[in-house]
Specification:
The structure is a homotrimer.
Chain A: E1 5-10, H1 18-29, E2 34-39, H2 47-57, E3 65-69, E4 80-85, E5 90-94, H3 100-105, E6 109-114, H4 130-143, E7 153-155, E8 169-170, E9 176-183, E10 189-194, E11 208-212, E12 219-223, E13 235-239, E14 244-249, H5 254-258, E15 265-270
Parallel strand pairs in A: 1-2, 1-3, 3-5, 12-13
Antiparallel strand pairs in A: 4-5, 4-6, 6-7, 8-9, 9-10, 9-15, 10-14, 11-12, 11-15, 13-14
Helix pairs in contact in A: 1-4
């Protein structure tokens, strides 16, 4: 028999003991649970980045309980939720859209409960660390076999907060107005342009692309297959491991070179 | 039957392989042990911070062996110890006070051994990495069921090094002279003022507080329940998840704003 | 029966979800596998540093499958390999020398397969994340009991890329021309001079040593046994936990003080 799995994503970082304490809480409640840390490096309060990471990673994770905490409004009036999605996975976290992209990708929410007043909470509940006092305990009890409806009050799935990612805009010229969605530790910039968008654009692998930024000189980049296809220091465009178009500097840092961060716009024009 | 638990706190950081090698050592000696990394982000050599983190986290951790290594005097004459505390937990680490706050909170030390010359050490013992060569092996053998007295030479618990945290000072005006004990990754500053101290102060939730620092303009702060009760950028005072008074900047970094770090003093005056 | 062990070293860092996704992939394929993160803090693309860390740590790790990914040429023509070494361990990673020092230390490679086109890959294979799509799946299947020859095409072990570390040069005066091999998180600098080299040098514990750097004033250091033998701020020389000569500043950062980084040369002269 397999150990139940709890995966865990947050913006807690690895400097403090926030993550370790949540592991402890889960292990006390559900000793056989295996905890997989997906990442704790989501930029502070960046709900959208957390949602994108969770949705992208989910297909690679064992089925289980998926705990996610990026929670700028902890202790305020946002709901705390546990949901079951169509493929059987259960997701636990704040109701601020963090779980929504993963839930959509997994077939949508089939049942939801509000766990803000869950009987499973650790008392006294702090006002600032619901990861420890609400989310981890609920995730652990679900991993241990508890039914979703025992974890909180029923909630209409249609009332949950949902994120939508911005769509790229395609010009007749083949140019694409895009937005930076994320930046990885190497400075590579993931855009809101996917493999499926490419035919609608004039961007083709092997071609040169002009990268335009507001208030700065346009730069030339090459659309390649992988980092090693670029010269050291060359600006490149490639499809990343989640099939999103991304901008990189071969052996360098594109975020720094271009002065772009998540949320910024840029245009990609076939040269 | 439950897997034995080893929790692990250190100042080793996550850039090097120090932590991973200790995991390997534990897994070789006690294969079924489950290792929970509490944190490895204690600031280098900050024994007091490590002691506070361990004591605060312990109630949330499964009972087991609690390994802690913040060891500025590794290889010098400080003792290496393993202790059993009143509630049955065992703690392993250097005898520099790191374990003392946790031991006190868990009812005090009931038995102690000096493990510097333990037969369980890995030979040759390095002069600089006792985490790998002494502490991890002892923790693993204890997790595997070995009795404390087999791990080293008996030691009088009264001889162990003990830390005491500074007490806040209360003025008749209701003002409090406090000290910063820790700073988390978000820049929030934890003080040596606990929930139990508040009645002796003039500080009340919902009220404004003047924060005084040596050689700098006093600043106004509001005593709130949670981050979300503050305006973005507002200086706030709140009870943190360990029921200590803490200073934060809503969506910002209080350590940076106030220019304060652990060990610094400040005064909190009801306005 | 023991759980199979997969150890994991990379330059992925802990900010992104690269490591967590690989854990998920392994856990899906081989649910009982225990994954030990050796480190993910190898400097980006630093194959030699990764090779040194893996070789040094291996004796402290349980026998199992040892996954390592530092892969500047991902998606290009470098081979992807799985090898078995003389002591029974299996290593998985890119064929760029990363595995070579560990393989040598473990008695040499006895069998090797090219896994670039392995039937075990996750499809579609990305051009940039072979950790997820090739290396982790192969490691997981090996941990689950699959034979090496089922993981890829047979490869002549003599054709594998192999690293050699630079040797120190000894002058008749007893001076040593050395090179910095690594720098740990505390700024300590590990050199290419081992315990076995010392008799050929004029360097003796307890003595003063002159540290020469190109284009900078020489500095005096003391050869001590451990950090605590140095005064706060003193430049010291010591044997590190892997029995390599290392340079440190007591309670400080030697890399910063000396302006030296991995790959830089320095001379050590008995004073």
């Amino acid at each position: 028999v397999r150990a139940p799995v709890v995966t865990f994503l947050s913006d807690y970082g690895v400097s403090d003991d926030f993550v370790g304490v949540c592991h402890g809480v889960i292990a006390r409640i559900c000793p056989p649970a295996r905890i997989i840390d997906l990442t704790h490096g989501i930029p502070r309060h960046d709900v959208r980045m957390g949602a994108i990471a969770l949705a992208g990673a989910l297909p690679y994770l064992p089925e289980g309980v998926h705990l996610a905490v990026v929670d700028p409004d902890v202790g305020a009036s946002r709901r705390a939720i546990a949901v079951q999605v169509a493929d059987g996975r259960r997701l636990v976290g704040p109701d601020n859209g963090l779980l929504s992209l993963a839930a959509q990708a997994a077939g949508g929410v089939v049942a939801a409960v509000d766990i803000a007043q869950s009987p499973l909470r650790l008392e006294p509940v702090s006002a600032t660390f619901h990861g420890r006092d609400i989310f981890a305990p609920v995730a652990a009890h679900l991993a241990g076999g508890m039914a979703l409806e025992e974890a909180g009050r029923p909630l209409d799935p249609d009332q949950l907060v949902s994120l939508t990612l911005p769509e790229p805009v395609f010009a007749p010229s083949g140019a694409v107005s895009a937005e930076v969605l994320y930046r990885d530790t190497f400075g590579n910039l993931g855009l809101n342009v996917t493999h499926a968008h490419l035919p609608a654009s004039g961007l083709r692998i092997g071609r040169t692309v002009t990268v335009g930024r507001p208030g700065a000189e346009p730069l030339a980049a090459r659309f390649v297959r992988t980092f090693a296809d670029g010269q050291r220091g060359e600006l490149i465009l490639y499809e990343d491991a989640y099939r999103r178009l991304a901008v990189a500097v071969s052996h360098g840092d594109a975020g720094q070179r271009l002065g772009l961060a998540p949320g910024d716009g840029l245009t990609l024009s076939p040269a």
